[in-house]
Every structure is written in C-alpha cells, then in structure tokens.
Known about the structure:
12 helices; globular; UDP-n-acetylglucosamine1-carboxyvinyl-transferase, Chain; 2 domains; 4-stranded mixed beta sheet; alpha/beta; binds shikimate-3-phosphate; single chain
Amino acid sequence: MSAHAEQIPMTARASGPLRGVAEVPGDKSISHRALILGAMAVGTTRVTGLLEGQDVLDTAKAMRAFGATVTRTGPGEWSVQGVGVGGFSEPADVIDCGNSGTGVRLIMGAMATSPITATFTGDASLRKRPMGRVTVPLALFGTRAVGRAGGRLPMTIVGAADPVPVRYTVPVPSAQVKSAVLLAGLNAPGETVVIEREATRDHTERMLAGFGAQVRVEETPEGRVITLTGQPELRPQTVAVPRDPSSAAFPVCAALIVPGSDILVPGVSRNPTRDGLYVTLLEMGADITFENPREEGGEPVADLRVRYSAALKGVETPPHRAASMIDEFPVLSVVAACATGTTVMRGVKELRVKESDRIDAMARGLEACGVRIEEDEDTLIVHGMGPGNVPGGATCAVHLDHRIAMSFLVLGLAARAPVSVDDGAPIATSFPVFEPLMQALGAALERTSG
Ligand code: S3P
C-alpha cells in the first residue's frame, strides 16, 4: 500500500499493572529475508512465524512480481517457490514497497545483477528516504539507476546484464546497504566482498549460509569483512522466524514504567547484533530476566520476564552500540523520560533517515508532553523526570512512522495525563496486533473518534 486510506488517531492513558504473556510477532528483518532468499532458491522454502505486517506483505507481493510463487498456507505459515539466483523475470508493473526501506533496498539489490528493469515506489515516507546509499554500490556491479532528485523514489533500476563482483566498504552503519550488496553479489561471478566498520544486524549473512551459499566473515582491523562466492545454487530451507526484539521492546518498556507490572515475552531473538536496548535497560536498572535461553531458527532466543522498575536511572549509550539498537531509540527515550537523571544517546544520526526523522519526532513529542530535551545532529538527550512525573497531555505527530506511534502510546500508559497520536495506522506495518496485545496486558489504549 502506498498510502494509508485513513488516519487512526489513538490515545493511551495511565493504566493499572500490565500482566500476562505478550506473544509478539515474527522478526521483520528475518521475514523480509526469508521471502527474498526463498524466491532466489531452487525449490520450495517454507516459513513459519512470518510477520504478517504490511511491510512484509509488500515484499511478498514484490517477489510474486519477479516470478516467485508465494503462498500463505496458514497463520504465519508461507511457502515460496523460488526461481533460482539470476532467475527473476521482469515485473509487469511498478513495485510498490509501501513504507519499507528494508523491502525496497533489499529487493533492489536482489534484482540488480539480472538483465531486467524494475521501477520502485513507496508511500510518502519512503519517497523521502535516500536510495543513493544502495544505488552507489550497485553501480559498481554495472547496475544503472534513475530516480528523483537526491536519489529518491520513484526510481528505475536497470539490472547489470554482465555483472562484475565488487569490494565495497559500507560508509554508514547500515544492514540494508550491506544486504543489498550481498544479494546483488549472488548473481555476480567470483567473490563479492563487503566491509563494515561497525557490525550491523547479521541476518543476511546467517541466512545466506543457511541457504547453502559460501559466506566467510572475518573480524579484521578494517572491520567485519564478509566474502560471498557468487552464483551458488541456493537450497530451499525451512525458516522458523523468531519473535522480533524490536517489537518486544514496546511491551517490555511499558511494563518497566507502569507500576506493578509483571509480564512474560516468550521466544524473543537475542541476536547480539540486535541486543543494544536490552543491554542499556539493564544498565538503567531494569528488572528483566532472560529465561530458558535456546536456539530457534538459527538465532539465539530467550523468554523475557519483565517487572516494573521504580529505580530506573539515566545512562549514556555509546556510539558503537547505536547499530544494535537503532530501531529502539524512540521507545528508549520514553523510558528515559520516566527515569531519574539524564540519558544521553550518542552516535544516532542514522535516526534522521528512518521512516521519519526520529530524533526530531521524539524531541517534539516529548517536549509537548512536558519533558526537557536537547539534541544535535548526532545526539539525543532526555532529562528524566522520575517515575510517575511525566505530565503527558499532548497529541504527538507520528509522521507515518510506526515506532513513533507505539512509543508515544507507551508513554501515555505511565504519564499523568493521556497521550494521543495523530495516526496509529502505520503500526500495522510492523506490529499489526499491537493494540489487542497491549489491551490484553491491561493497557488503557484506544482509538480516538473524531
Ligand atoms: C534493517 C536495518 C536497519 C533497521 C531497519 C531494518 C534490516 O536499517 O533500521 O528497521 O532489516 O536490514 P539501516 O540499514 O538503514 O540501518
């Protein structure tokens, strides 16, 4: 969907204790990759626990447009009949990736080394986001791209008919860029090498190995060096998608700031490249225990037991941790507002090019709720007010950003006066069951009429 048909204003108000089990949906990053790699394998890949959010549904639709057969066989259960590496056919129409930067950038990479042309677009948020970060490295393979000013969508990608392998150092910490280059490297002969100075989420490397590609990862003084041997035959897999730590963050943070709460969030991925929020919350004094640690679908997972934590204190998050919690800063800033002391988030400038400028969106909304904020290009500082002291009482602008919407609704559960968001519709991109799941825990959260 390229536009939300209608806005859904929502309000959250101070709630009694949150109690119960929060079964959050499947991991968004892994869900996109399962569909894309399934489409590039020879044979039928089966996926369980797929996130059925709009972002992932848009990727499923795109894979069909490139020739794969993608079928929903049950709740969260999907099968993908792949066309093989280099087997994509040319889509008959524009590919609409909706709100999803991950979807569009990974798919651009996956088709970039096939002799086909595809035009991509998305919603008003996605059409503002920079695509040059993927088209620059894709050009090294021989791919051409023509888009709007500033490398914005809509954009047409002309795949390289005769691709060459590349060696590329990713200039910004971005798993999407890394993944686009690796997926493009699949259909180039020889070895494609991607170097990242800071580790970002490693689901693509893990899953490529699972599908039978030769991938080597070395830690060197230059950074993480990932070497992929091109033109493998990918073998179809059964992918069990673990629950999304970025979605789990919302009930977890809500339980930490709503007095008396005690919840269990089972089966959450504890991949170290995604774990920064949980490291930070523990430093703040959060009462979280990681029970029953185990491996599921090639990822470490655990059941999270989370209890209200009255003594949360402000901390500083170092720049090197930013990539491992990049999607969690909005909700961390809400916890920081309810903590005692100042929280300083450093090295966060990538937040400015997400679904919205997340530094700006959180700063303006928190200020409207009575919280003192400082910011510069690369830093967000929240002056905590202590438990139960955030005034609230504002309507916050979401800017088509699901995580901004959920963060302010979490704040409303612990603020003195209700907190509203102008539009909760984008929540469906990543966490379609957010509203009933939070309500079942005891959250006073509702759609506001008018
Ligand atoms: C993602 C990478 C991150 C993250 C996004 C998902 C991925 O984006 O913010 O939600 O699945 O690769 P960047 O690569 O832009 O950091």
